[in-house]
Amino acid sequence: MRIVDQRGVKRMLGHPSGRSIFQVVGESKRKEEYLCFPQHYCACYSFFYDIVNRGEQLCCKHQLAARLASSLGTCIDVKMSDHDLALMLSHL
C-alpha cells in the first residue's frame, strides 16, 4: 500500500497514559492528514460515505494503512502529552 510505503502513518502517543490515535496522510495532491482509530473511525469523507452511510466497505484505506503500518512496525511514533492529545481529539 502506497501510504505505508511512503511512511505516511504516524502514531500519536499520549504520555503518561499510553493512549494513541493515528494520523494518516491522504493520497490526494493536497496531502491532507486524517485522524484515525483503525478499528472504529476515520475523519475522511470515504469513511462516512462508503462505510457509515452505504455500508459498502469494512474500512477505509486510512484505517487499513494504520493497521498495516502498526503490524509491520513502520509507523512514525510521535510522543506528546495527554493534554495535547486531548486537544487534537477535540478537533474531530
UniProtKB/TrEMBL annotation:
One of the GO biological process terms: defense response to bacterium
SWIM-type domain location: 22-71
Keywords: Metal-binding, Zinc, Zinc-finger
GO (cellular component) term, any one: Shu complex
GO molecular function: transcription cis-regulatory region binding; zinc ion binding
Protein name: SWIM-type domain-containing protein
Species: Solanum tuberosum
